[in-house]
What we know:
- This protein has 147 residues and is an all-alpha fold.
- It is 76% helix and 0% strand.
- The longest helix is centred in the last third of the chain and has 40 residues, at 107-146.
- The protein is elongated and about 75 Å long.
Amino acid sequence: MPVYKSKTLATWIAVLGGTFGLHRFYLRGLRDPWGWLHLPPALLGLYGVQRMNELGQDDKLAWALIPLLGFTIAAGMLAAIATGLTPDEKWDARHNPGAPARATRWGPVLGVIAALMLGAAALMATVAFSGQRYFEWQVEEGRKISQ
């Protein structure tokens, strides 16, 4: 007998672990290739954060890697939003075929609200960080040329 896949649980797994593809593993199992594709950019982004903590903000590799983490966080939040806003009937037809439809109530809605806040913050911070570092690099290169 197939295991029931909860829309509420899938939404919250995407909010809390979507950066690493955990929502994909919950829904499709450990053999899901798209779930495994979340890991490399997320881990590289975490490595960039670690490098910046150790070497400071002038480390160019760190500022190239950190946006990967921001974008994977935003992608995980987008998955949470898409999951949480899927109508219950469509969800059950896709993930629980043959099972009676279950009303999900407020759980997925609260997950979508959390995902909107976290995803927007991650995306804005990523764009701001990347833009700032890029323009600082441009100023630095301009100084080198003028000397």
